[in-house]
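Proteins fold reproducibly. Next comes a concrete instance:

***
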Amino acid sequence: MSLRRRIFAGGALATAAVVLTACGSQGIYSLPLPGGPALGARPTTLHLQFSNVLDLVPESSVRIGGATVGKVESIGIAADGWTAEVTVKVRDGVTVPADARAQIEQSNLLGEKYITLVSAGGSDGRSLPSGATIPATQNKTTAGIEEVLGVLSLVLNDGGVGQLKPIVDELNTAMSNPRQVRSLITQTDELIKGLNEQRGDITRAIDGLAALSRRAQSQTTQISRILAELPRGTAVLNQQRPEIIEMIKQLDRLGTVGTDVLSRSQQETIENLLALRPTLRALAGAADDIVTALPFVATFPFPDAGVDAIKGDSMNLFISLDTRLINQLEALGAGKPAPTYVPPKYGPGSGRGGNR
C-alpha cells in the first residue's frame, strides 16, 4: 500500500471514530473544557426547572457567590412536557441550601450565560440532597442583552413615543383650566371624606350581603325547587289572564265609585268627627280612671287578686260569717261619727296630679 493510501485510510478511521463517539454522547458539549471545575468523586446532582433557558448550553458554569462550583450537565424537557429542565453537577463538599433558587445570568455584555445559586436565608442549615429538583416557580431568568437592545430599538425608532403624544396632549388639555382642576380635586376630596365617614355603614352592608349570600347558599335546594315551580306558576297565571284583567277593571270601577261616595259624604264625615269631639274629651278626662280600671277588665267580675284562686272552671272560696249582733250594728255605723271623705289613691282627686 502506498503512503498516500495509508494516510487516507488513517484519516478515514479517525473520522469514523469521532463520529461513533459523538453518536453515543452529547457531541461537542461532552468534551471537557480546559480549566473547568473539578467536581470530585461524588458531586451533587440537581435538576433546575425554568420557563425559558435562553441560549444556555451544556458545560456552562454554575456559581455560588460568584465562585464557580459546578457545571451544566444537560438541558432537556421536564416531565410536564412544557418546562425546561437543566441538570447540573455541583462539586463534592459544596453545600447547597434547601431554600436555594437558581438564576440564569450573563457574565458581561457579550459573555457567556451561567447559572447562579442564591439562598433566601430560611433554610435553617438544611441542604438539598443529590437528585433534588428546584421548580420553575423558584427560579428566574434575567433579561438578556437581546431583550434590552430590542426595547431600546423600539424606543429609538419612535415605536412608543408617537403613541405617548396623544396622551400628553389630552393631559395638557385637561390641565389647562386650573379652576376646574381645583374644583375636581375638591369634589374628589369631599367624596373620599364622605366614603370614609360611611365606612361603618359600607362594612355593615357588605357583611349583610355576605350573610345573605351564605343564607342563600344554605337554601340552594329550596331556591332550586322554587325556580323549577316558577314556569308552572307562570303558565297558570297566563291561563287566568282574562280573569285577572277583569278583576283589575272591577277594581278601577270600585275606585271610581269609592271616590264619588267620599266626595259626596265629605261634609257629613267632617260633621260626625266634630260631633265625636265631646266624647273624646270626656275619655281624655277620665284617662287616669280608665288606666286604673283596665287591670279589672281581664278578670271581671272578680278582682285580679282572685286569679290565683281560680283553677280552670272552678274557684276556691272561703267565707267568714260573723253572727254577733253588736258587730253587725257597728258595721252599719251605729254609734259611730259621720263618715269622712277619703280621696282615691289614684285619679284626679288623689293629689298626685295629671296622668301617671
